[in-house]
Amino acid sequence: MHEALEYIHLTLDRIDNSYQRVNTGNLVIDALVSNTLNIAQVSGIQVKYKVNLQDVNLKIERYDLCVVLGNILDNAVEAAKISGQTGNKCIEIIIFSNKYTLFINVTNTMKDFTCSLYTKKQQPDLHGNGLTNIRKITERYDGNVSIEAINHRFNIMVTLQF
Questions:
Q1: Which residues contact 156 (CB under 8 A, 6 or more apart)?
Q2: What Gene Ontology molecular-function terms does this entry list (predicted)?
C-alpha cells in the first residue's frame, strides 16, 4: 500500500511539472517561459521570473515573438548550464508590456568574464543566427536590443513596439 501511494505521488508530481507554470493568457510567452522553467529545474538552474502583460493580445506576430523570446531563453539556459558556477547557476526573466511596447529582460550566469556573440556549439554553420534574427525582428517592430556582459552575468534587453 505504501509503495502504491509513493508511486501515485511521484506520477502526480511528474504530471504537475509537465503542465504550464506560467499562465498570462498569451500562449507563446506562457509556453516558452514554462518550458524554460522545466528545463532549468532539471538542469539545476535557479530561475526568478516576473511576467506582467497589460493585454495578452500583443500586436506582435506569434512567429516573431517565438523567434525573439525562444532564442533569448534558449541562449540563457545554455549559458547558465555551462557557467561553471556550481550551485549558483541562475536566470532572471522579466517580461512586461504597456499599451504599445513589450519589454523582455533576461539575465543569466555565464562562464567567461567577457562574452563572444558567436556560437560555441558543434556544427557552427547550423547555429549562431539567434542574435541576428532577434535584431532583424526588433528592427521590424521599431524596437531596441541592448546586450551587456559583466561579472559573469549576461543581460539582454529587448523592446518591441506594437
A1: 72, 75, 104, 105, 106, 145, 146, 147
A2: kinase activity
- In a domain, residue 17? The reply is no
Here the CATH number for the domain that contains residue 129 is 3.30.565.10
Span 44-93, pLDDT tens digits: 999 999 999 999 999 999 999 999 999 999 999 999 999 876 568 999 99
pLDDT in tens, 85-121: 656 899 999 999 999 999 999 999 998 754 555 555 5
pLDDT for res 14:
61
Tally the domains of the chain: 1
3-state secondary structure of 93: strand
Q: Quote the crossing angle between the two packed helices 62-81 and 27-43, to the nearest 10°.
A: 10
Nearest to 91 by CA among 47, 51, 36: 47
Interior CA angle at 75 toward 69 and 78, to 5°? Answer: 140
Would you state the pLDDT for residue 111?
86
Q: Is 3 part of any domain?
A: no
